[in-house]
Amino acid sequence: MITFESLHIAGLDEAELRTWIEASWVHTRGTKGAWQFDEVDVARIKLIHTLRHDLDIGEPAMPVVLSLLDQLYELRRNAARLNDALATLPPAARKAILERLEE
Amino acid sequence: MADDPYKILGVKRDASAEEIRAAYRKLAKKHHPDLNPGNKHAEEKFKAASAAYELLGDAEKRGKYDRGEIDASGAERPPAQGWRQYAESGPGDRYAYSTGGMGGADFEDLFGNIFNQRPRGPAKGHDHHYSLEVGFLEAVSGATRRITLPDGGTLNVKIPPGTEAGDILRLRGKGDPGFNGGPAGDALIEVHVAPHKFYRRVGRNIHMDVPVSLKEAVLGGKVTIPTPAGEVAMTVRPGTESGTEMRLRGRGVPAHGKHAAGDLHVKLNVVVGPADEKLKEFLQSWEQPGFNPREGLK
């Protein structure tokens, strides 16, 4: 578990992080004032920080951007699962699927 | 990093800090790896832009570079672990779009649609379904019928001998045109067979009742039977009981293909006919000692 104090993200403001948590952009396990983050949450905070400050994406646009990103990654996770499932098929079946995809 | 950082960001050598920042943001928005997962080209572009901005976005480093004190490669650093590494694997489910961060997505829904709706290469056209009522003898002996289609066209339908109710006749290529050069669909015609006045069909055989007179039944004789293929003279033996079944071999459904001809089963029914005074007179003085027609009912 990672606390706010051990985040070490340059330029991250605690008040701003609180608004992200309240907007459910970032999930946390702890309670108000005693947040605890998994590594995936830290990556999420860095992502939002990058979007807001490095890429200068305005706060009103953030729900749209995050929603589209979450949909994109969900598709990619599912594509990876499909890929894993296909890898377990016999070679003839995989070949048939590839041929169908190339049609 | 051998390339000129000014060229990478697309700014002039005398660009202001604000111009350099804006140029970097523009490139980063387009190429950030978290926004372009799996896109190597975008990742390379982003690395280059980040490295260039690392150098030119810092006034001190930019001064050293401009004076030739450091070269562009000194600024390159491997990018930090990004969102994509988490989001593309299991932990990313915590921020899943469809389930609010609780477990897996609706996988079946997603890929079911992709596989079913994916455009294909050449494919056969759709089949057309029709229903056609044919006469009993047309189904037995075969016939050709012309049907009129909903679009005003016509189809000649060859009904083969021995067609049974419920059979589907397939006319190849008479359905919808194919997709992307595929073959046309077929016309599928379900056959309904009208009942006949006195024939009944049992597979390859045909059954019929044939009335015979009392005289024919008692004395025997030749009886003319109308078979599907024409009249045939059949011998009724003397003393034939009502209900006797006789078989006319090969007079059922005619032979076709690999099927041998069926038989015509004839059931003889004795018919007394209109009252006859002479017959009444005779029977009043006639006895059959020892004969009880209802012996079997005891």
Description:
The complex is a heterodimer of chains A (103) and B (298). Chain A is elongated and about 55 Å long. Chain A has helices at residues 14-22, 39-54, 62-87, 91-102. Chain A folds into 2 domains: 1-57, no CATH class; 58-103. Chain A contains 4 helices and no strands. Chain A is 61% helix and 0% strand. Chain A has 103 residues and is mostly helical. Chain B has 298 residues and is an alpha+beta fold. Chain B folds into 3 domains: 5-87, Helix Hairpins (Orthogonal Bundle), CATH 1.10.287; 128-193, HSP40/DNAj peptide-binding domain; 200-284, HSP40/DNAj peptide-binding domain. In chain B, α2 runs antiparallel to α3 (40-56). The longest helix of chain B is centred in the N-terminal third of the chain and has 17 residues, at 40-56. Chains A and B meet through α2 and α3 of A and α2, α5 and α6 of B. Chain A: It comes from Acidocella aminolytica 101 = DSM 11237. Chain A: This is Chaperone modulatory protein CbpM. Chain A: Pfam families: MerR_2.
Short summary:
Chain A is mainly α. Chain A has helices at residues 14-22, 39-54, 62-87, 91-102.
Any chance you could write out the topology, listing elements then pairs?
The complex is a heterodimer of chains A (about 100) and B (about 300).
Chain A (H helix, E strand, L loop, with lengths): L13 H9 L16 H16 L7 H26 L3 H12 L1
Chain B lengths: L4 H5 L7 H15 L8 H17 L2 H8 L16 H5 L19 H11 L10 E7 L1 H6 L1 E6 L5 E6 L8 E4 L15 E7 L6 E3 L2 E9 H6 L1 E7 L2 E7 L8 E4 L15 E8 L5 H8 L14
Proportion in helices of chain B: 25-40%
For this structure, the CATH topology of the largest domain in chain B is HSP40/DNAj peptide-binding domain
Low-confidence stretches of chain A: none
| Average pLDDT, all residues of chain B | 84
Distance from first to last alpha carbon of chain A: 49 Å
Keywords:
heterodimer; A: 103 residues; mainly alpha; 0% strand; B: 298 residues; alpha+beta; Helix Hairpins; HSP40/DNAj peptide-binding domain; 3-stranded mixed beta sheet; 9 helices; 23% strand; Chaperone modulatory protein CbpM (chain A)
